[in-house]
Amino acid sequence: MTGMPLVFLETLGCPKNQADSSQIRGMLLERGCAFTDLPQEAEIILLNTCGFIDEAKEESIQAILRLAEWKKKGRCRFLAVMGCLPQKYGGELESAIPEADLFLGVNDWHVLCERIYDMGGHRALKGRLQVGRPDRELYRLSWAAVEEEAPAGYIKIADGCDHHCTFCVIPQIRGGYRSRAPRDIVGEASARTSKGLREAVLVAQDTGAYGKDLIPPSSLAELVRSLCAVDGLRRIRVMYCYPEEVDEELIEAMRDPKVCPYLDMPIQHADDGILRGMGRKLGSARLKEIIGKLRENIPDIVIRTTLMVGFPGETEEAFQRLLDFLEEYRLERVGFFAFSPQPDTPAEKMPKQVGSRNKEKRLEIAREAQSRIFREWNDSRVGRVVEVMIDEETGADGALRYYEGRTSQDAPEIDGLVSLSSGGRLQPGQIVNVRITHSGDYILSGEITDEPCQ
Question: How many CA atoms lie within 13 A of 199 on its CB side?
Fold first, then answer.
């Protein structure tokens, strides 16, 4: 391969994977690669995979086979598959999918530079599979701030997980919890803000556990306060904070005007028996107490969570308690998934497994219940004046320009959007006051106003 290789990078899975892919992209840009959005143009195709649940594994495998077609009908000479799927199932993939040239674990993508630029360097590799320990640290600031930024971006503050949820393979894939140094995180936020970042979305397997492993120890609250001091950063959003880590110090830190009134807090269920079976640390009473404290102390906070149906031993009564919880606490953002037994997890061998038909039925019922709750909440926003951060211009009609943006209660790529128009040009990252005039399923419409927010 000569000259500057053209690379296509596709990322599957969660925002933590998106953050890893940003580092991979920065690493290769630093080494002289160029990127394309079209796989048919690329000489090198990279796929960063997810392997959390069965649906994610199947999506990853189908993506490998789909991208491998460009080795036959495109310019691709090299296909590398990285991330969670090879970390857990690398040996199986190497045998089953000969179309891929290289399989790399979650923190082995540094090998890409060796393979792409040092054609003799690959002799040190063990065949097509390179999966090392998941606790290798690969972060570099120079890889984080190499391009102009979108208004919102993910900052991964830690990797790995020390929780032992009985259904989850993440600790096997990602290793133990490892916090990044606060100065590195603040340095990344500052550098990326100079490139256009205006909203820092903090991600980790559990952001709330941040800093406990550092010497001296730190905390998520301390980190949030440090990030609030970064000039030019307008919003800080906290994702994936386990409820047991929500304490008074964090709640107080989140009251800063720069911090979005929004918290992604994985709960998984609301029945005490199911929570014990999952290996979760808190029962339903404590969960409800934490939700109450958040709403009491942070006006207009939006709580996002994930809930699982069909966990082993989930009776109709336990499922009804989950529905009752939804109705009583009316969380604004909820994602649902059905339990799927993962290899080498305790839940895989638990008795009283719920049948697939029952799981799908419960999934449908829960989603329908939450859809109604969400619609009612979304409709309640009509008539309010809210701050909207502009993400992009979507079109123009004469002098009128159309834009999409998000309120502080909407996370990028996950939640809803606000559609608006303007007679003047608005810039990505700019914040304007908008009166909401219409509520759709996931898109609010509004008009720019000089009125203060309500």
Answer: 28
